[in-house]
Amino acid sequence: MVDHLEQQFQALETQESVTPDYPDQDHVLIIEDDKRLAELTRDYLEANGFQVTLEADGAKGVDRILTLQPDLVILDLMLPGEDGLAICRRVRPNFAGPIMMLTARTDDLDQVLGLEMGADDYVPKPVQPRVLLARMRALLRRADGPAPDGEMRLRFENLEIDNATREAWLSGERIDLTSAEFDLLWLLGRNAGRVLTREEIFSDLRGIKYDGQDRSIDVRVSRIRPKIGDDPNQPHRIKTVRSKGYLFVKDS
Questions:
Q1: Residues contacting residue 65 through CB under 8 Å, at least 6 positions apart
Q2: Which residues bind DNA (predicted)?
Q3: Measured in whole angstroms, how far is the alpha carbon of residue 230 from the centre of its chain?
Q4: I need a surface site. Which of 4, 101, 169, 197 has the fewest CB within 10 A?
């Protein structure tokens, strides 16, 4: 797998360099115990305008994330010392940046668990370098906040969603949301009263077509519901529309 990726990295090095979208050098922390793969990824990202820090020991992962507060974390699932799921769960209360989970395991359960622990994206290995770069930039664009035009705040009874500060409140209490959860909540709220299909959600949030298999949207909805006071068993705010998608209900 690493040999295959090395060939891709080397091929890209001979082509015209890609102009980075982030000239201020966003800081990326890669927690990966495969030294060769980590270094190849670091070199490629640095060539595309990122500052990169490597960490191979899962036991140091939590401290590194909380101390460095990088703009984005690429987190391997299987690590020595502490696995990626545990790291993600432990840092989420004090780290708001995007976390991309990168792993050779493709089990649906691993993907669901990763998302439930607070990961923003879940990428199976091997991933093509340009695909990795595109998905990183998509996460960073969303984390950087909304465009200056358009509606900035939505109110639904005791729920408020502010797209300028990327925060939400329930009865005046701030809701703890990951970047990906906020993006989905804002999209649903902005389209309140209209059924959004999974195809529309994927296109808007990730810029890709829905493959009919990815469960990340469903997992995030299940995490958002209790946070906004919605009963997961009998939701009144975010309703599932069978075989279609989701409906964010306007105030009665």
A1: 29, 31, 73, 87, 91, 95
A2: 151-250
A3: 23
A4: 4
Q: Is 221 left (phi over 0), alpha (psi -120 to 50) or beta?
A: alpha
What confidence tens digit (pLDDT) does each residue in 192-251 have?
Answer: 999 999 888 888 877 666 666 777 888 889 999 999 999 988 999 999 998 889 999 987
Q: How far apart are CA 134 and CA 1, in angstroms?
A: 20
| pTM of the predicted structure, to 2 decimals | 0.64
Residue with tokens 């990428």: 123
**Amino acid at site 227:** K
User: Which of 55, 47, 50 lies closest to 31, judged by CA?
Assistant: 55
Report helix, strand or coil for 21.
coil
Two tokens at 165? Answer: 């500060």
Q: Which of 13, 47, 41, 16 is nearest to 29 (CA)?
A: 41
Q: How far apart are CA 41 and CA 170, in angstroms?
A: 41
